[in-house]
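Predict fold of Aromatic ring-hydroxylating dioxygenase subunit alpha; 408 aa.
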Amino acid sequence: MISQQLNDQITRVGPGSDAGAVLRRYWQPAALTDELQRGLPLAVNLLGERLALVKGADGELVLATRDALADEAPSFSPDADDIVLTEGGASYPAVERNGIVFAYMGPGAAPAFPDFDCFRAPDSHVFAFKGLWECNWLQALEIGIDPAHASFLHRFLEDEDPDDSYGKQFRDRAAHTNMPMTQVLREYPRPEIRVEETDYGLKIIALRHMENELTHVRVTNQIFPGAICIPMSREMTITQWHVPIDDETCYWYSMFTSFQNPVNKDLMREQRLKEHRLPDYAPLKNKSNDYHYNPEEQANLTYTGMGLDINVHDQWAVEGMGAIQDRTQEHLGRSDVAIIRYRRMLRKMIAALGEDGGDDALPMRDEAAASIKGPLSNDAIATTDEWETASHAADMERRAACPWDATV
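Predicted 3D structure, encoded as tokens:
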């Protein structure tokens, strides 16, 4: 458990806040490229500021300060006719990358984008989407860096045919076996978790030791400050940012990156729009309708009884903690090692900014950031004494067969 003062320090993100100062020194997703089809200006609420995407004098996108409508909800984007820009207000640079418009709201020059797979892959191989969660950004991030939660929160009591599950996480077969990933997670629920610091954040390794001296290896990543990169299947990874609208609501923005075949964007968009409404991308299953909880389903099909979309499971878990999780009452355990390491890293970076205001101590803030590739995010099954070599080899094999340059 931590103090209320510390909990406030690492969760609150408005202008002048400690965590907000860190987040503002990185490119943050501001909108989907799809949203630009509604026209400009486009209202954006980001890091506790009311803004709008507009075209600058040079024709490039910028994020400008706007006047707030008195009755505007945090997640609502009004029509362009309702947007009034603040005369003389701040503006921030914005740029499109593979389906997401990113904005830089910090001091000085914006950092370079790392050469991650989601940015270097061609547009044909990346699909972007987002969803609204009614909770603080940090608890949204922390569920994504907890490898153990998938064995419980996303437990499926029946295994569907992975061949019919394109575009859905945990529906692939485990590498080099016919065992569905849902079965691996269900039968081996207590992974050994290792965490390593990297030049982009944290590398998180979950080892599920199986029979016959085999181990399932799942490598995920925390990309500082607020993103994760995780395997969706052997074909695809997900890079997901957890972006504060304000202190009590956030969006997750995801880039689904395919290594071999172009993504079926129409199908993936259709799948997700069945679960979300427009224009605010709010989930149709939510607190107001108990997330469509079904006790019969819970008894026979899923751990939560809330359908097959794992985003709903995560949404229920993080929103159920309250708008801002009360960490003064929590008791962390061995499986929370990545969460512990991340909080230490965030606190260290807050302290570094407070000491001298320099950005060089923060990950990916120097010139070398542009050369950071990957990161490795995959599943593999190997003999227990060779899991590390096998995991790396599986990633290299996938990259070698990739039609775009995925070399690292």
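The mean pLDDT is 91.
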